[in-house]
Amino acid sequence: MANWIRFSCADGAVGFGTLSEYGRRVMRYEGSPFDIDGTQPTGEEMGIEEVTLLAPCQPGKIVALWNNFYALSKKLDKAPPKHPLFLIKPARSVIGTHEAIRRPVSYDGKIAYEGELGIVIGRRCSSVSVEEAEAAIFGYTCVNDVTAGELLQEDPNFPQWCRAKGFDTFGCLGPTIATGFDWRAAHVITTLDGVERQNYPIDDMIFTPAEQVSLISHDMTLEPGDVIACGTSLGIGSIKDGAEVCVSIKGIGTLVNRLL
Amino acid sequence: MANWIRFSCADGAVGFGTLSEYGRRVMRYEGSPFDIDGTQPTGEEMGIEEVTLLAPCQPGKIVALWNNFYALSKKLDKAPPKHPLFLIKPARSVIGTHEAIRRPVSYDGKIAYEGELGIVIGRRCSSVSVEEAEAAIFGYTCVNDVTAGELLQEDPNFPQWCRAKGFDTFGCLGPTIATGFDWRAAHVITTLDGVERQNYPIDDMIFTPAEQVSLISHDMTLEPGDVIACGTSLGIGSIKDGAEVCVSIKGIGTLVNRLL
């Protein structure tokens, strides 16, 4: 089990590393866990205060699920789906922890947080079995799947999932990618300005992470660094301008983003 | 006005060039029209038979519109939308002319062709005006927006646009990118095994290309090489396994893809 981060240094260099000493120290690596050549430890160690955390990966796409928790499915009175139901958030939606969620210039409606588990793909996979899918998962991160809620049903003929969720800065990822992580034992906890708003067990999930990767890999090739946002459960709500959302998963860390 | 192609040579080198002599000759360029450094003519000339055409750009995303032609909107009895209605097709969906559309291993239902005009973005743009949008368009290509039609409404609660249209090889682009192209004077003509199935005037479009780029750039940053598929009009239908679809736009060329 390791916690991978991606960071920039004071000199502008960008790199990958793992955390040690309860997150206080960074062990620096050469290369990227998402490149074919992988990573090599450099032996260099830094204090966490010497680096700026970035989104822990740079997905070409985020595949974001809807209706993937039994509790939410029951509350919405919608049957559990037979296949993961998803939309795509583009690469430019991604930000890391402590980066600002930016209100779109063209939208003054409600903006919602959705705390989620994120699966980070480690190997290219296409039409893989559940077992192969398990091996293709590099690790897990926290996701805030931000949504311009009032756009979703703005047009009566076409629910605008990609538009409502695709804005730049609406795909918050981080702070780390945890490898060897036991998602079955974890909860997603979301706070809004310090007040707990979501706290749900991940094992209430309809499609497990390996099932998601396997099934979605039959729909499209998943690439190293791609993220599947596993869907949210009960407790989503609006973020007032200026408010801070924290998504925490024990073993991964706390993803912090303010709406500006 | 020029017709840009992307190609590979017998030695495996990949490059950009423009066509001359009615498409018989290729003028080779260094660099890419989508890189900040742009292109330089090399002076090298080749016969078209010496190269293999590739998709003319490598979009990070295809933004694909639904209900963007008055004739189709009327036939569907749906009001023209107030904002472009779109989904995202991922990068791996892209293929070029004469590459095969592959039937997904997990799907034995109907697969539809949709002949469309594609806008190719030349400059990064975010929240730009219609005038700025016009200047951000590099050129135009043909699109076959392939769709696994029976997946769209498979789940009663969530129309699966990204899934039905996102499969690898379902985003056919090419054969060229035409710059300085007058879309108002052109038709999209689609043939299925040589029989004309679509022939519609592009100026029946609800949102013009510059309006699409401007409005969508308020939803997400558009990057050089990204493609907006402008939506289709009347005459879409199913492709039988083994059948060949040609999408032709005068001034751009004919995009040819067979379903295998």
UniProtKB/TrEMBL annotation, chains A, B:
UniProt keyword annotation of Magnesium present: no
Source organism, top-level taxon: Bacteria
Record-annotated Rv2993c-like N-terminal domain positions: 4-56
Pfam families associated with the record: FAA_hydrolase, Rv2993c-like_N
Molecular function as annotated in GO: acetylpyruvate hydrolase activity; metal ion binding
Entry protein name: Fumarylacetoacetate hydrolase family protein
Limits of the Fumarylacetoacetase-like C-terminal domain: 61-259
Sorted UniProt keywords: Hydrolase, Metal-binding
Matches recorded under InterPro entries: Fumarylacetoacetase-like_C (IPR011234), Fumarylacetoacetase_C_sf (IPR036663), Rv2993c-like_N (IPR018833)
Gene3D superfamilies: Fumarylacetoacetase-like, C-terminal domain (3.90.850.10)
